[in-house]
């Protein structure tokens, strides 16, 4: 319960209002990296660097802490995290929106929140991502899976550096330097190895091919 204490002393105010759909969009945005470090069922993210955000608050919820309390805890955590979570990944109203989303959906993947738009390749307002528009998450139901979105949501970016995805992980090799071919990526993702988990079973074959194609096409660019 260290996080509860941390929330009480912060200079950030209480979260008075927040937009959960915008929060979900931010959670999935490759720029915030939340999804790459955290597992959160509603967002279908499987990051394993930080704690599972469904489990993190389940006891709080069962002890009757209100959604408001959880919002404030999350808001405090975003502003004053412990290492290795970077501080102030989002600020101001964005942070309140994210906190609202997590408080609403923690432990409840059927909370009914839809991201206000799919994780944008360019992000909001920043020019940092440059030419990252190789894929768009939007589109018809039968479109090929979005390799870039999978890279973030499956947790790859928590462990690997890949400039196009805004990923700065350093548990595994820097993929911009490695420049692996598609087949090499697909094989590694299927079977894992070293400290890397196998994703077969978690990701479909089509998703593995999509993320492998994505990595091999952008690495080193
Ligand atoms: C580089 C990986 C990383 C990123 C990116 C990251 N986190 Fe974390 N997060 C962690 C780690 C590690 C912890 C545990 C730190 C600690 O011991 O307090 C944590 C803790 C938390 C907690 C507290 C959970 C608890 O058990 O009380 C919340 C809430 C949280 N993160 C939300 C977020 C949100 C929202 C984002 C995106 C804005 C984010 N995190 C981005 C790694 C990350
Ligand atoms: C928990 C951390 C972690 C996660 C998550 C992770 N990796 Fe890795 N990855 C590693 C480590 C560590 C290695 C080095 C393994 C070794 O030395 O055998 C590695 C190696 C690789 C390699 C190099 C394989 C080779 O032939 O040298 C590729 C490509 C790769 N990962 C891609 C991915 C992709 C794509 C994802 C997401 C689906 C991912 N990784 C998720 C930690 C991770």
Please tell me about this protein's structure.
With about 220 residues, this protein is mainly alpha-helical. It folds into two domains: about 1-5 and about 15-105, Cytochrome c-like domain (Cytochrome Bc1 Complex, Chain D, domain 2, Orthogonal Bundle); about 145-220, Cytochrome Bc1 Complex, Chain D, domain 2. It has helices spanning about 1-10, 20-30, 35, 60, 65-80, 90-105, 145-155, 155-160, 175-180, 180-190, 205-220; strands at about 40, 45, 160, 165-170. α1 crosses α5 (about 65-80), α2 (about 20-30) crosses α6 and α10 (about 180-190) packs across α11 (about 205-220). Bound molecules: heme C (2 copies). The site of one heme C has 22 residues, from α3 and α5.
Can you tag this structure with a few keywords?
elongated, binds heme C, two-stranded antiparallel ribbon, 221 residues, mainly alpha, Cytochrome Bc1 Complex, Chain D, domain 2, single chain
Detail the topology: elements first, then pairings.
Elements: H1 2-8, H2 20-28, H3 34-37, E1 39-40, E2 45-46, H4 58-62, H5 67-79, H6 92-105, H7 147-153, H8 156-159, E3 161-162, E4 167-168, H9 175-178, H10 182-191, H11 205-218
Antiparallel strand pairs: 1-2, 3-4
Helix pairs in contact: 1-5, 2-6, 5-6, 7-11, 10-11
One heme C is lined by residues 48, 154-156, 158-160, 171-173, 175, 178, 180, 184-185, 188-189, 193-196, 199, 211, 215.
């Amino acid at each position: 319960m260290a996080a509860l204490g941390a929330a009480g002393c912060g200079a950030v105010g209480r979260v008075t209002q927040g937009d959960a759909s915008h929060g979900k969009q931010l959670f999935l945005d490759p720029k915030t990296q939340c999804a790459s470090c955290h597992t959160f069922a509603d967002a279908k993210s499987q990051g394993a660097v930080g704690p599972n955000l469904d489990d993190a608050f389940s006891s709080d919820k069962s002890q009757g802490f209100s959604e408001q309390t959880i919002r404030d805890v999350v808001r405090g955590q975003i502003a004053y995290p412990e290492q290795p979570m970077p501080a102030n990944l989002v600020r101001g109203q964005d942070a309140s929106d994210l906190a609202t989303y997590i408080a609403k959906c923690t432990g409840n993947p059927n909370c009914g929140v839809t991201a206000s738009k799919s994780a944008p390749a360019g992000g909001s307002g920043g020019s940092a991502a440059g030419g990252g528009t190789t894929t768009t998450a939007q589109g018809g139901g039968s479109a090929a899976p979005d390799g870039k979105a999978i890279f973030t949501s499956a947790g790859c970016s928590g462990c690997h550096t890949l400039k196009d995805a805004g990923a700065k992980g350093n548990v595994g090799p820097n993929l911009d330097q490695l420049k692996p071919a598609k087949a090499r990526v697909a094989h590694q993702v299927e079977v894992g190895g070293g400290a890397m988990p196998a994703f077969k079973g978690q990701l479909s074959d089509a998703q593995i091919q999509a993320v492998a194609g994505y990595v091999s096409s952008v690495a080193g660019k």
